[in-house]
Amino acid sequence: MTLATHYPILQVVIPLLAAPACVLLKNPRACWLLTMLVMLVSLGIAGQLVWQTSESGVISYAIGGWAAPWGIEYRVDALSSYVLLIITTIGALVLPFAARSVADEINIKMQYLFYAAFLLCYTGMLGITITGDAFNLFVFLEISSLSSYALVSLGKDRRALSAAFQYLIMGTLGATFYLIGIGLLYMMTGTLNMADLAERLPAVNESRTVLTALAFLTVGISLKLALFPLHSWLPNAYTYAPSAVSALLAGTATKVAAYVLLRVLFTIFGVDFVLGTMPVAEILIILGMAAILIGSMVAIFQENLKRLLAYSSIAQIGYIVVGISLGTVTGLTAGLVHLFNHAIIKSALFMAIGCIIYRLNSVLIGDIAGLGKRMPWTMAAFVAGGVSLIGVPLTAGFISKWYLVLAALDKGYWPIVVVVLAGSLMAVVYIWRIVETAYFKPYNGPASISEAPLTMLIPTWLLIMVNFYVGIDSSLTAGIASKAAAQLLGVSP
Amino acid sequence: MSEFAFPPGLIMILGAFLIPFVSDARRSLLVMSLPILTLALVWLLPDGSNLQIGFLDYSLDPVRSSTEGRLFATIFSIMAFAGGLYALKQARTIELTAAFVYAGAAVGVTFAGDLITLFIFWEIMALGSTLVIWAAGTHSAYRASMRYLLVHLLGGVILMSGIVAYVIETGSTQFVAMTADSTATWLILAGFLVNAGAPPLSAWIADAYPEASPSGTVFLSAFTTKTAVFALLVGFPGTEILIWIGLYMVFYGIIYALLENDMRRILAYSIVNQVGFMVTAIGIGTEMALNGAAAHAFAHIIYKALLLMSAGSVLMMTGKRKCTDLGGLFQSMPLTAFHGIVGALAISAFPFTSGFVTKSLETSAAAHEGLALVWMLLLAASAGVFLHAGIKFPWFVFFQKDSGLRPPEPPVNLRMAMWIFSFLCIAIGIYPDPLYAILPYAVDYQPYTIDHLVTQLQLLLFAGFAFFVMLKMMKRTLTISLDFDWFYRKFFKELTEEFSIHASVAQKSMERRMKNRVESIISNLYRHHGPTGILSRVLSTGSMVMWVAILLCLYLLSYYF
Questions:
Q1: Burial of A444 by CB count in 10 Å (0-12 exposed, 13-18 middle, 19+ buried)?
Q2: ipTM score here?
Q3: Which residue from A211, A452, B224, B257 has the highest number of Cβ atoms inside 10 Å of its Cβ?
Q4: What is the C-alpha to C-alpha distance for residues B548 and B239, in angstroms, rounded to an integer?
Q5: Are the beta carbons of B465 and B387 closer than 8 angstroms?
């Protein structure tokens, strides 16, 4: 069982090493094959880690044999294994889809760079999730951010460059804020290990330095999370990025940021301090509700499908943040369940849009008129994903909605219930606009348009299937999520 | 546990997805056998909970067999059978598929032992019925289906918040009798009532149902409102407010049906009216009243479907739907006219029809409880039913003036479906004991007493008399002789024109105001949220950074103080 004990480090190192290998290989096909292999291995390891943590509790791995407060510790608990599972699932399903999509959208000379950046971004996100060290987290944050700027800039549209640049500035700002926050904490406690920080902070948490650190951290992470009103970089980045990148980032990037928020608020600062003494929860709930309403409303008026989904993502982030900020086990469970559910819903939807782009070369709502007959499977996948986004029973979205309403009512917060349900009705409107155009308007595009290739359709439909599966049997998502929530809040499950 | 522990509703829901994939010959077999299989399973399942499934953190009870559930599931299966037969050759595949999903979900609701199962089938029902309306394929059907969907999604979210709150309050998901005394139960009640067509959202029935295809309307008339009656029957028996809500629906239906000209809209308003009777009975809540509501629902599904089948045949053969365009059709469609009249007699509770033996349970229950006002109103309403559905519909469509239309009888499968329901209408009327035997409570009631017969006949005679007195005047306005009648014609014409001018001016201005208001709201939203609005404009990097700074200050301030 020697290999099994090294799973935490293998989870990060394998994709990290594969990235330079891609640069050396240069052949797009070989790169894809290698990346695909890495994705499958990573998914396997993540599955193993989920199983291990559910069997034997928290796994702590000391890098290089240096014990925890001095060396860097990798720490896998229910929450991090859950997020690892999300990232690797999305990765393993987006990549098969990416093969055709990348070949179509990205210059052949740049494709190996795409795979390298893709792997680095993936590594960064896995690293953020697995590390137990606050500074190490910053390092991985930078790895994933820098590579995602590169990924966004590979988009076909020239506006991708300015979008990537703006994303870079805002992302760097967020990371810097995070670094300032961590620096201030280090100043007060002399440690960077999260568990150690959590132990030492209560003694000094009255000081202005710690309060300032908390403010910098919350703002920095909110920026990464694209929480309203710091969301403005996200629509452009998602809109102009290559389809495969949108699908990956929509499913994972903001989820990882939400994970960081949870770690910082609950693990480092502690529930009692953040939710009891500080008005963090109140601010986050208000911002989250604003995100739901404004994000959904803006999505209704969008003409560009990718932008529409991007605004919908901003609204969905609102759901996650509201759930987290309720600060109860049910609330956290709701937030975490939606973390998973939104990842699979949004990735599936972006993949369906990717199929449309592959054939149609356009993402404007006016151009998909009558596409329901031309690309029946693609549009059916879109409708199925949309139904889940709305939260119809027996889909993943319903489970999220249920838990969120349950958590809000549990605390007697009726306004949240109203906002959540209004949000789901608004989702009906913006999904409906697309369905209406695709199915009820006459087709007027070129006659050559036919269904997307199977290599793109199958991964999309696999994600849709996962959607229905977790909608019916929610024990996987809700089970791990409620355990992770209990662990975070320090109550026995 | 039982060896048949399978939700009966799923037979039709799952079977429905086979419909698009089988050949025409097999399709008939499939469509006919699914409801029969469902019916068999409904009666094979032993009483009580038959299956437990874990979902979320709760244990679902999707196969709970009860007398009420079985009664409703039985009539839903019969309805799916006859409706399937009626729709078999003419309806589009998507309509037939959606209709069977819809019917299956309705059966699913009747076997739901917990609120979550109920909610899941409830939502499937909303989707299925929306698709049924859509399948008509016309522009107005599409618009109507959207309005319909919005009402039902709204009802759905109300119901869902009610259920969640109820689960938190009581810790139980069991679907049992509740009392409307907390926010949770009020919300659940409201969610049920939306589907029943209660005020203030009664209009969706007459708005959406007549836009569906001829066969689509037949399906729609049966399931949504009657599952709501079932849910109220199990969940809120004896809730007093239901008496008044029901009475409102009764009179709302009558008044609008009398004013209406479209034959299928007349019948749609009449659904609201009939469901009003049932809701009132549930509000009374005695064993006899609940028996009455259940029996009335059973009988009503049959005769209302029969009426709509008859109207649907007329629509299909003539393409006309307005009473003023129709008339004299009995000459070439005697069978359709016959079935329409049987349905009309049944809905008017004419002796020896199903309406007579079921509706009287409700009125008698009101009398037994000493609710004199309710009793009198119900009796008056019975006369009103005879006016709008019993005479108005068959008279204007099949008799009246001769419109000159000579359409042939509808195709054979339509005629067969109508024969089945005509037979049931009369069979239940003559021999009600089998129906009485499956009612929720023991029946100690004899419908055929001299007293009852005489009262009912008197009521019908006078109502009929009133109609024909008015009709005489109306007939004169429609003749072409030019002497004395000219006065009436001119007079009535002026009168109606005067009225319609004022009414339409008022309506126009109200509509205009509403439209302006809605448009200004939307344009306002668009200004802020639209692609160039402040909330979705691409911000310059500088202003993004400004937001970061603002938020940082906000956090710092709120943390410091």
A1: exposed
A2: 0.78
A3: B224
A4: 55
A5: no
How many percent of chain B have pLDDT more than 70?
A: 90
Q: Where are the domains positioned within chain A?
A: 279-493
| Residue range A62-79, pLDDT digits in tens | 877 777 777 788 888 888
Whether the CB-CB separation of B96 and B85 falls below 8 Å is answered with no
Chain A CA closest to residue B531: A302
Higher-scoring residue by pLDDT: B500, B397: B397
Residues in B closer than 8 angstroms to A177, CB to CB, are: 548, 552
Contact at CB, A233 and B54, closer than 8 angstroms: no
| N-term to C-term CA, chain A | 29
Q: Quick one: pLDDT at residue B508?
A: 67
Query: B53: left (phi > 0), else alpha (psi -120 to 50), else beta?
Result: beta
Dmax over CA atoms of chain B, in Å, equals 94
Angle A280-300/A305-325 helices, nearest 10 degrees?
Answer: 160
The rounded distance, in Å, linking the Cα atoms of A102 and A87 is 20
Q: What is the C-alpha separation between A164 and A161, in angstroms, rounded?
A: 5
Q: Across residues B15-44, what is the average pLDDT?
A: 86
Q: Looking at the DSSP assignment, which residues form a beta bridge with residue A143?
A: none
CA distance B310 to B264: 10
Question: Does the distance separating the beta carbons of B154 and A300 come in below 8 Å?
Answer: no
Q: Measure in Å the smallest separation between the Cα of A26 and chain B Cα atoms.
A: 35
In this prediction, residue A40 carries a pLDDT of 92
| pTM across the whole model | 0.83
The secondary structure of A299-319 as a DSSP string is HHT-SBHHHHHHHHHHHHHHH
CA of B495 vs chain A CAs: smallest distance (Å): 43
Return the residue matching tokens 């979320």.
Answer: B56
| For helices A396-410 and A305-325, angle between their N-to-C axes, nearest 10 degrees | 40
The separation between CA A182 and the C-alpha centre of its own chain, rounded to angstroms, equals: 23
Interface of B with A in 540-559 (CB under 8 A): 541, 543-545, 547-548, 551-552, 554-556, 558-559
Which residues in B90-127 are b (16+ Cβ under 10 Å) and which e? Answer: bbbeebbbbbbbbbbbbbbbbbbbbbbbbbbbbbbbbb
Residue with tokens 């790169």: A31
